[in-house]
Structures are given as C-alpha cells and as structure tokens.
Prior knowledge:
Layout: H1 30-41, H2 62-72, H3 80-84, H4 90-111, H5 119-135, H6 144-155, H7 158-166, H8 169-180
Helix pairs in contact: 1-2, 2-4, 4-5, 5-6
Amino acid sequence: MPTASLEAVEPVGLRIPEPWRTDSGKVRGRPGRQALQREVELTPKPGLVDRLNSGSHRDMDLATFHASIQAIAPWFPSSTAGRVHAGCGCRETAAHLRPAGRACEDAMLQATAGVNTHKGSIFCMGLLSAALGRLDDGEDLPDAERLCAEVARICSSLVETELLRIRSPERLERDYFKLMV
C-alpha cells in the first residue's frame, strides 16, 4: 500500500455525488478507478485501445490498461494529501505532490512493463485530488469552476519551476533573448 495517497474526481461535471463520501467525510477513490475503466472500455475509439483492438498501439492492449488501473487505483482513496497541505502555498502543494505522483507512475510502469498507459491521468487526477482536498471542508464539495480555479492556482508556477529545474535562470534569459533577435 502506498505511503502517500491521491484521489480522483468523477469526470462528469467534476462533482462527486454524496454516496462517494465515507462516513468520516473523506472522498472515496472509486470514482477515479471507474473513470479510467470507463475510458478504456469506451468502444469504438479509432486508433486507440478499446475493447475490440489496440488501435495504432503495438505496445499496449486492454489487458495492459487493466493492469495499470489495478496498480494506480490504490493511490486514489482519500483527499488526505490535499487536506494536509491546505494551509501551504500553492507552490508548496505542487512540490508535495511530486513524490506521490512519481511513486504512482512507478507503480504503473512496473505493472505495464514500462508502458505509459496513464501518465497524463496520474498528473491530472493528482492535481484535481489536491485541489479537492484543499477545498473540501467536509460539507459541500466544490463546483467545477472553483475546483478548476484551485488547480490553476496550484499550477501557476509549475512551468517556471520546471524550466528552472532544468536550466539556470541565466541560460533561460540568454536563450529567450536569442529567440527575440
């Protein structure tokens, strides 16, 4: 079982119906698993993996996606990560998500023999989970607009942070000015 946890948000309307809450008020991980299962089972999807074929993918099939879902679903059960960091700044929240996201991604890659089936989903669900956790007051769940605004706040410095991680500020400035000339 993972040491950190992420949760998913039901994609339809980005609202989780009350039955998805546990008795303690936490959001269950079931919507995330269901969203991933529904997406891969949706048929037909020309060029993509579905119930009938692997589309243009030679490295993955329906079984690969099911194995991936099994591996990453344990990361979805609670909004604890977001609640723990609710008092932190958005940049700090994003930094706290990285280790759990990477561990979830590692679980996916291990289950799929290195095939990337859900990297984008892990990233998006991690952000939605953190936003939901930061906004969840145990009462009403936030609407889609408020949830997406919180995701935007968490991501506000993501590009800058990632670019600086890869390149020095001096090199970024030099390369930027080269493009301007």
